[in-house]
Amino acid sequence: MTIQTPQAVTEAFFHRIATAEDVNEIAELVSENVDWLVAGNTQVVPWIGRKHGRKGVAEFYAQIRAQISSEHFEIKDILIKDKHVAAIGELASRVKKNEQAD
């Protein structure tokens, strides 16, 4: 049995976001009980909102991959305290439907 540290899981998570073709490979790194929330107006931005479990996380990444193209993604720092992790970074993307930058 391999014991994964929060740092290792977080690094693997961001690596998979960048490289995994199957969104389920990303989702398998989160808890089956995860309460995934990206705040905002779901009428305007349909891929945000609340998702539940690994299935919800996979759905989130499938939706954003279908609807936006990433122009810049950089993790500046990963902060860890016990089992809590926060990542600080930059993201720039373009909505595929209308080509507007976010």
TrEMBL record:
Gene3D superfamilies: 3.10.450.50. Keywords: Isomerase. Transmembrane segments: none annotated. It comes from the Bacteria. InterPro entries: NTF2-like_dom_sf, SnoaL-like. The keyword Isomerase applies. This is Ketosteroid isomerase-related protein. It comes from Raoultella terrigena.
